[in-house]
């Protein structure tokens, strides 16, 4: 990657011809100040920019179709897309296709974060896809519907969940084309995208509601799953005479949201013993999503007896991508190992 350096700005990066076909999916709906920031601002090494861009360059050069519309029609659905990233190496031995009697490979569907206003696709989508490709897994990055500006009436939700369901239906319909199997998939996400992924296991908005197979596991990075904690933070800011940014909550529940109305989308209130196994990673110094969200999720998983692995570090902040050089370095490999362990255990029990 001689042409891209830590000093390269996001805008400059998206102007590179070798990335053009996917550059619209690097950072969506971004403001000018973000566009002009260098990659080092986000952590060039930490986020795995070099590795990710090398993979994207190879995908673009392959000439294969990478961008797939999730819907065939619908004005507000035009931007809902899947970026397909096929694997570049053999599957890990423990994921051999005979485990489920299916010749396809288990896939990961990744939901980038961005407070439901935008998507940090390069850091929180394509980077994980590139790493999963290197480990031998097919990956899809989902660009779901978002809402950038007020008013938020009606609210954005549940449109992103509908998009997730439609994406899985599309993948299942074209499983042979993509070389994947319908069973044993995992849904991953970061921040708001992790909230979306976590919703997929709930009793009120999850896979069962859409008549689809459940995932073998959920892989969640700093998930914003608890609306109560965000509501508490807004109330605390008000008590201190500070103005709280509640746009995230408005996207979930509309302009006239209440603590009670928001709970429809508070994952911890809608989990049961059929919730999928979870790998969760977060950092205690995250300034955007309270680490309490991860702890609340862990508590519910314990109560319900759901298998999980928690990788919670003291330092690492928010939007750490692959987390290279941080205390969570190696988390994608750990998450993939957990996912495959869940597949093997499921195969062993015949469930």
From TrEMBL:
The keyword Hydrolase applies. The keyword Signal does not apply. It comes from the Bacteria. Keywords: Hydrolase. Residues 105-298 form the BD-FAE-like domain. GO terms for molecular function: hydrolase activity. InterPro entries: AB_hydrolase_fold, BD-FAE-like_dom, GDXG_lipolytic_enzyme. This is Alpha/beta hydrolase. The lineage of its organism: Bacteria, Bacillati, Bacillota, Clostridia, Lachnospirales.
